[in-house]
Amino acid sequence: MKYSLPRLPLLSLFFLCTSTLLSANTFLLGIDVLERSGFRAIAGKRVGLLTHPAGVNVRGETSIEVLKRSKRLQLVSLFGPEHGIYGDEKANVPVLDRIDRRTSLPVYSLYGKYRRPTASMLAGLDALVIDLQDIGARSYTYVSCMRYAMEACFEAGVEVVILDRPNPLGGRKVDGPPLDREWRSYVGAFHVPYVHGLTIGELARMAKANSGWMEISDEVRRRGQLTVVPMQGWRRDMLWPETGLKWIPTSPYIPDLSAALGYAMTGLGAQEGDFSHGIGTPYPFRLLRYKGRTAVEIKQALQRRGIPGLGLKIVETKTLKGYPIEGVYLYAADWKLLRPTEVSFHMMQLAAEWSAPKNPFAQAKNVSLFNKHVGSSAWWEEISRRGREARVQSFVNRWAKQSRLFQAESQRFWLYR
Q1: In the sheet that 275-276 helps form, which strands lie side by side, from edge to edge?
Q2: pLDDT (tens digit, 9 = 90+) per residue, 245-263?
Q3: Does residue 239 sit within a domain?
Q4: Cα–Cα distance for residue pair 400/54, rounded to 1 Å
């Protein structure tokens, strides 16, 4: 039976749960707490701001506007991550430095010629303020941008001030393979499970405290100044809809909250083989298709794997260019049971099964990039060697145990209980 999936409320699409939305007066982001304090953390200072379109306060004003109009500080420069400060740059495309037409301030790109702020970019700054919205998955590059900026600032003697924001997946869900040290890169900057369950402020605190988490000496790391301005009213069990905040696209492929969850579920699964996961459709990272297989076959194959908490629907829709297509829409039927990254590894096993006798992973051209995203050498050896016989459940169970240990170890860096 086929279903035509309309644009359901994000709450239904994302967690299929009900919640009471907090009012804007109850919930405050880091930028709101900073403003209400009279900008105490940066008062009287010359500051730069690393941000993007999702860097807004609870009223929807950008952090650029908020800092620019304040008489308590001097905003002298802007820094942009991947996709730029206005989010209109394509993925994996270098962004150039420029003068911002709205504020007349210099904008330094940290996704172009340089990934780290240079000494000349930081010259004259007392502090670099970072206001970036993460989506809770390790390979999303904004937390990498934050780490690189922290390293450069600590070396230059510039204070780092992080304005904290919610993890849209909540602070309880930790899942997926941890990052092997050899695969640390711009798509894997921190030694955390793929779904880490931390806010960017908590990640920064953990990196600041742990030797080997940043590519600077321990002396520089310890000497570096880090201030995290926490949110008010956020709890670890709070999912994004409960904050009452409007979702602002964090990047072109994460236009809505539904895609943020989808990224954790399928973002790793379409790197090799013939799976597509909805890019170019109304449901990015949520709509599975496979070359030469029907939606019914895909749905049945995933159902046989019995992934706890996963819901599946066959959907007829159109691509963004208007071509009719059919695929399998994934959703969280039970968020508490779902281990989101598990889906990707079943996708890989299916790709190996449906490509047999050829194993697409054994013939992959860019093994390094695959491993940088997944983070696990052991999984690569498994899927490239065993293909359709890869022991997905064994790895998923091992990662679940490691995730529990990580969550216990990370608690001393939590800002919210």
Answers
A1: 275-276, 287-290, 324-332, 310-318
A2: 999 999 999 999 999 999 9
A3: no
A4: 31
Determine if residue 223 is left, alpha or beta; phi over 0 gives left, psi from -120 to 50 gives alpha, anything else beta. Answer: alpha
Instruction: Classify residue 220: in a domain, yes or no.
Output: yes
Q: What is the spatial distance between Cα 247 and Cα 109, in angstroms, rounded to a whole number?
A: 24
Range of the domain at 133: 20-234
Q: Would you say 13 and 258 are in contact if contact means Cβ atoms under 8 Å apart?
A: yes
Does 377 have pLDDT greater than 80? Answer: yes
SS3 at position 329:
strand
Pair (180, 135) in one structural domain: yes
- What the block records as the tokens of 16 is 């299929």
| Burial degree of 6 (CB within 10 A; 0-12, 13-18, 19+) | exposed
CA–CA distance, 133 with 226 (Å, rounded to integer): 18
In a domain, 5, yes or no: no
Give the tens place of pLDDT for each residue, 286-329. Answer: 999 999 999 999 999 999 999 999 999 999 999 999 999 999 99
Q: Which residues contact 207 (CB under 8 A, 6 or more apart)?
A: 147, 150, 190, 213, 214
Residue 352: inside a domain? yes
Per-residue confidence (pLDDT) for residue 44, from 0 to 100: 98
- Distance, in Å, from the CA atom of 166 to the CA atom of 241, rounded to the nearest integer, reads 11
Tokens 């992973």 sit on residue:
361
